[in-house]
Amino acid sequence: MSSVPPSTAFSPAEDAAIDRAVDILRGGGLVAVPTETVYGLAADADDPAAVGRIFTAKGRPNDHPLIVHIADAEHLGEWTERVTPSAAVLADACWPGPLTLLLPRAPRVIDAVTGGRPTVGIRVPAHRLTTELLRRFGGGLAAPSANRFGRVSPTTADHVRADLGDDVDFVLDGGPCPIGVESTIVDCTADPPQVLRPGGIATEEIDALLRGELATTPTGPSRASGMLASHYAPRCPVLLAGDEAEARAIASAAPGRMLIGVGVDLVTYARLLYEQLREADRQGATAVVALVPPANGLGHAIRDRLFKAAADRDG
Question: Residue 291 and residue 293: Cα distance in Å, rounded?
Fold first, then answer.
């Protein structure tokens, strides 16, 4: 009888795919990995050359920091020089899960990962294949979203292949991502802690865990993934509407416009958001008309992605 619990058992194909991914990563290669949020483009976080390949493949600015993914919270102290009290609370409550903690970097963290900054983003993903990959790999993986920089994040293996092609050495296919928007990023070096990017864990939940000691509006320079004004954008324009009537009116005002976000709950909206933005491009839509949801729960993350997708791309 297998000693592996049924919830973490792997098929022979999955087992072989994980081992192949480990071998590629140890050889300095790039592997697209599934998470509960989006697919990440992973490299050995201790290998400057491998991390450099991430920036080349994505066309990402070299000073834009990456997030280090680790197998569990027990390894957190290897990547930060200090686990702050707020970080300890959030890690205990939310990991594994869609939360990234920004903390003071440990000496082992290379400049290529942080963009030369004194802080590093760290998270423990909640996807069975990537959790096992991290366990077998035995180190940290630097992994931004597995797409061209500034464009729509991938939530399926096919999205990764369509975006990156041969620039990624292997895609670990874990099926569609169940959440569909990136992790929440909390700067635990700030006092009080700040939400730098709303994501898969609601801002209200973070605030409750920190007993109201949370700044929801970030101040200071860009210092984490997804903080640029324009991001997550399809090729076609994105037009925003504040209510359903306005959304339908804008969508019907010109031919070829695709309407999203009407008649769905926030969980479904988040899970399908990037797929729908990609579908608009596949269909040759002249624009996406998106209903902006209320600022609660996953609505925070959806609003953030929509505002950035609709932002002036020349600014």
Answer: 6
